[in-house]
Amino acid sequence: MKMNGIKHLSARTGLVVAAAGILVVGCGAGAFAAAAPALFAPAGLSADPGVATVPIPKPTYEVNANGLTYGSVKTSDSPANEPDLIAVVTTNDLTTADVSRLSEAAAAKIETGGGTPGYVLKKDLAEADGSNVKNPAEAVKWMEGGAKIDHVVPVYKSDGVTQIGQFVVYGSDSTG
Fold it and tell me: What residues does each domain of the chain span?
């Protein structure tokens, strides 16, 4: 009989230890979850109450004679604050092997030269990468068609008028 009492005590002790372990792990995970926003918040932001926060400054871009802003998206805090002309490097210096990976229509648009810094119109890039879709129906249509093909986007000088090359946005069906 004592043996059964010891087994019973051991099983009960095991349950108590397991429950205590779960409680400790749960409390630790909860504490981490509560602290995570403060730990991983971008510089100047805090999720802690009572801590002063500073909003990320809105980027400033140069403006060309046509009134278009131009620059890098690296300084943008959101797509709404990206410049009208986005900095890229032309990709029309592709090798013959690179061009062979493109769709026939995209390859036909590629000229020689390339590797030159320039700018693509934000609206052209949005049409090429699908970021201009407005609703689920448009997204489905994009995924069934536009997302699969390669898009060649004109690259301009900062004036937004003088074309200096092309920039390729590869589709999901590209072999590259």
Answer: 1-55, 62-169
